[in-house]
Design goal:
It is built from two helices and ten strands, in the order E-E-E-E-E-E-E-E-E-E-H-H. By secondary structure, it is of the alpha+beta class. It has two domains: 83 residues, Sandwich (ATP Synthase, domain 1); 51 residues. Strands 2-1-9-8-5 form a five-stranded mixed beta sheet, with no helix packed on it.
């Protein structure tokens, strides 16, 4: 089976490097599926999960907060603003951040921070969605 090399990196360092049979990334225009020999492409990423299908193994999930990616026929490079393995996401901390963001949005006194609160809420919702995808994968 043909594979494509995948590198997922952020300012913190390399998160993943390996061969995949298929990769799914949260592009700003929607999710993109990338197979070996994909046409070259540059795209911005939004917060969400990157799914990497490895030959003969379960999918691996990663969370990215945004960034950019480059696709070449035999290489996918994800340059994330920040990234982590989805298994490393702390659901309790994420739920607390979601509550704080929702409270900031609802608070009339913090009008100046509403934009930041919306951005934080979007990020934590993407993290929660990634956790939910992992749970569905585990049930299979």
């Amino acid at each position: 089976m043909k594979t494509i090399h995948v590198d997922i990196v952020s300012a913190e360092g390399e998160i993943f490097s390996g061969e995949a049979t298929m990769v799914f990334v949260p592009a700003s225009t929607g999710e993109i599926g990338i197979a070996p020999s994909h046409a070259p492409l540059l795209a911005n990423l939004k917060a969400g999960d990157v799914r990497v299908q490895l030959e003969g193994q379960d999918e691996q999930f990663f969370y990215v907060s945004g960034g950019a990616m480059e696709i070449q026929p035999h290489l996918v490079t994800v340059l994330a603003d920040s990234a982590s393995r989805a298994d490393d996401l702390d659901e309790t901390a994420i739920l607390e951040a979601k509550k704080r963001a929702e409270e900031a949005i609802a608070s009339v006194d913090q009008v100046g921070n509403v934009g930041e609160a919306h951005a934080e809420l979007a990020m934590v919702m993407a993290q929660l969605k990634t956790i939910e995808k992992i749970r569905r994968q585990a049930k299979r």
